[in-house]
Design goal:
Length: about 190
Amino acid sequence: MPMYALDEELINQPDAPKPVLAAAWFRLGAYLIDGVVLMPIGWLNAYQETNIGSTALAVGLTLLSFAYKPMMEAEKGFTLGKKLVGIKVIRTDGHNIGFREAIIRYFPWFLLVGGMYLLAYLNGIDLSAPVELNVEDINDPDKAAYLTFASQTSMLTIGFLIAVCSMFFNRRRQGMHDMAADTVVIIDPERVR
């Protein structure tokens, strides 16, 4: 039997726990907390890029940050941010999510961050080197790649925001990543007790 009654035929069963869908503000709070959790990895990666220059270390740190969200959600149903705000991810059939659903849910974030790294590489941009850009630089061939990169990453970011903000337009508060993975985010009943 599912842990939570989400399907219409289960909702009327008296013994099935009734989940409460998480509001977008809870999800945003969890996302911000997870950003803080991952900050030390980002700082270490930035430090190593400017001082050590190890490709292997850069790849390892990037993979570690990529693994955090799907591994935590597949194992526990939540990240540290979700746990702190009291929400968790479940499948729409009421069961806990597995690794498959966690990976599908993570795809927009992977596409955004991985896409930015790929675009930087394709444009020949060193992300660890500071660059100052002005409107006049549009005709400077040395800085044109940075402007191209900025416009390309803006498109990625807009796509990401559309996928995530789609949760405001359906009754189950699902983002496109939730719909693709057949998941919902609920208030964790353990937190309520």
